[in-house]
Structures are given as structure tokens and as C-alpha cells.
Amino acid sequence: MPELPDIVYIAGKLTGAVTGTPVREFTVKQPVVLRNTFDRPPGELLTGREISTVGFKGPFFIFGFGETTELVVNLMYSGRFQHQRQGEKQDGHLCLAISFADGFRLNLCDENKMAKAYLVPGNDHTHVPGIASLGIDIESPAFTAEAFRAVAARNGRKQVRVMINDHTILSSIGNAYADEILFEAGIHPKTLVSRIPAADIDRLHGAICSVMAWGIEEVRRAAQPIQVKVRGHMRVRNRHGQPCPRCGATIRREGVRGYDVFFCPRCQPATRRHFIDWNRPPAGDSGQDAARG
Ligand SMILES: [Zn+2]
Fold first, then answer.
1. How far is the CA of 167 from the centre of ligand 1 (A)?
2. How far is the CA of 271 from the centre of ligand 1 (A)?
3. Residue 157 is part of a domain; what is its CATH number?
4. Residue 2 contacts residue 173 (beta carbons within 8 Å)
5. How far, in Å, from the CA of 270 to the mean position of ligand 1?
6. Are residues 97 and 22 in the same domain?
7. What contacts 24+ positions apart, CB below 8 Å, involve 34-37?
8. Are 73 and 63 in contact (CB under 8 A)?
9. How far is the CA of 164 from the centre of ligand 1 (A)?
10. What is the DSSP letter of 233?
11. DSSP strands (E only) in the chain
């Protein structure tokens, strides 16, 4: 699943690669992937027109065809774009393709056919599920320390990993960078937001900004083709059993709401400490029972 740094990189690459060239053909190989809200077939609607802008909103890519038409794409778990040169091998299972007059083709590939594309009027996202409910954009000037404090105050009963990973709260942080952010902030993923001191909430806000900037820079530096997921720079994500790069303790993996999370138990200690009173008899007084038996 592409995350914000991947999306920034892909949108930037595609802006240079696919804008300003007339569409020669729009191919729909997997109709289940496309929702066309116009009463004309997509080929008829788009052929001869040009993509003018490539942007994004949360996990959604937005290709503008002038001001009247948009192709909105959510790659979901396994979808990816490929900017394919003539003669170059196609990257897996093709769902949609836009062929351009310059001979290049923009492919949407997904063997699971879970990616979703929507052809909608410009800036009209009423038929794009999930886009209207996106939370505060963490890349926007609105994402201040003060705004994040308010977010934390409203979500005190949630585990911190669940809160920062919820796209209706923050737009948007995926699983990989959520782990990296909590590692940077030194916060255990299962900590209840209400138990995090105010100073640490501010530190968490700083970690969201700095880790995303770092991720964007690392993905840019890796300079891979857009279909490649760049994760080599991760410090805890998928590093279960490996030494923490900061303290050397063994990185652990645990489940939070059915998702794997990775963290360093020493750099990110649990705040809810379970103090054990060694002078108290064991629960149920089973020790005595055993002695009597
Ligand atoms: Zn550590």
C-alpha cells in the first residue's frame, strides 16, 4: 500500500511523465476497477484530451483532464502505477491503461483487482467513497501543534497507533510510517492517547512532520521506478527480531486491531506499568491450596 512519501514521489514523477500529451486510447481490462459516473464510455470521454494536473488527497491520486473531468484512483493494498515505455515489460496484472500519443502508457496493475478508479466531474467527489471523510491533511499548514493537541483531546480513549493510523482523523499515515513515527517519538504503540503527557503529544506532532519529511527524502533519493515500494530505510517496520538501530534491543512485533506493529521495547516502553507486589499472596490463594493438597 503506498503511503504519503510514496504518493508524493509517484505524483511528482507522473506530473513530469503524463501531463500535456494527448490520450490516444483508454483501455479497461477489468471493469470492476472502474466506476464511470458519466453517461459516455471512458474512451469517448478521454481520447484526444490531455492530463493537465496530477495531484493527490490522502491515499487518492487525482488526474485532472482540464477542469471538467477527473480520474481519481485509490491503489488500495496491491495496486500500482507503471509508466510503460514501448517494448518494456508490463508490470503484472493490467486493470486499466491510458495510452498516450508519445508512445508511453500509464498502467494501473493489480492482481487482486482491489484498486479503485473513478471518472468524475472536476472537483466533484460525491461518488468517491472515503475522500470526503478524510481527516486533517498532515502536509497542510492547518496541521499545527495546536490542531494536533485538539485531535488528541478528542481521541483520548484510542490507542495512539490506532489514532495516527485512522485516515478519518489524520490524512494520512499508513502502517509503515505509523511505526516509524512512534519509534521516533519513543511512544509505545498501545499507549492510550489520554495517558500521553502534553509535552509528548507535541513531540509526537513533531515526529509526524519530521518522519514524513524524512520518508519523502528517502523515497526521492532511492529514485526507483514508480511501481517499486521503497522500504529499505525503515528502522523498525518489518524488522522483527533485529537489533534496534538506536539501543540494540530486539525489535518486537505485536498485533494492534489485527495489524502487525513493530516497535523497540526499550526505546518505546509501555506507560501502563504493571507493578507486582511480591509480598502479596498469589491470586486465588492457589499456593496455599497446593500446600494443603
Ligand atoms: Zn531501541
1. 28
2. 15
3. 1.10.8.50
4. no
5. 13
6. yes
7. 34/95, 34/96, 34/117, 34/118, 34/119, 35/116, 35/117, 35/118, 35/119, 35/127, 36/119, 37/118, 37/119, 37/120, 37/121, 37/127
8. yes
9. 21
10. T
11. 23-28, 34-36, 53-57, 60-65, 69-74, 80-84, 94-100, 105-109, 116-121, 136-137, 170-171, 252-256, 259-263
Specify whether 140 is located in the same domain as 258.
yes
Backbone φ, ψ for residue 264 (5° rounding): -100, 120
Distance 249 CA to ligand 1 centre (A): 5
pTM of the model: 0.90
Contact yes or no for 121/67 (Cβ under 8 A): no
- What's the rounded Cα separation, in Å, for the pair 197 and 212? 23
42 and 106 co-located in one domain: yes
Domains: count for the chain = 2
Residue 155 pLDDT: 98
The CA 191 to ligand 1 mean position distance, Å, reads 17
C-alpha cell, 179: 511505526
Q: Which three cell numbers stand for residue 42?
A: 471512458
Determine, yes or no, domain membership for 167: yes
Q: How far is the CA of 201 from the centre of ligand 1 (A)?
A: 20
CA of 179 to the centre of ligand 1 (A): 13
Assess if residue 220 is contained within a domain: yes
pLDDT, mean of each 10-residue run, the chain (293 residues)? 96 97 97 97 96 97 97 96 94 95 97 97 96 97 98 97 97 97 97 96 98 98 95 97 98 92 96 48 42 35
CA of 183 from ligand 1 middle (Å) equals 8
Cite the DSSP H helix spans in the chain.
Answer: 4-18, 42-46, 145-154, 160-165, 175-185, 198-222, 286-292
CA of 134 to the centre of ligand 1 (A): 33
Question: Cell digits for 112?
Answer: 487482486
Q: Is residue 211 part of a domain?
A: yes
Domain co-membership, 71 together with 8: yes
Range of the domain at 42: 4-121
Query: From ligand 1's centre to the CA of 63, what distance in Å?
Result: 42
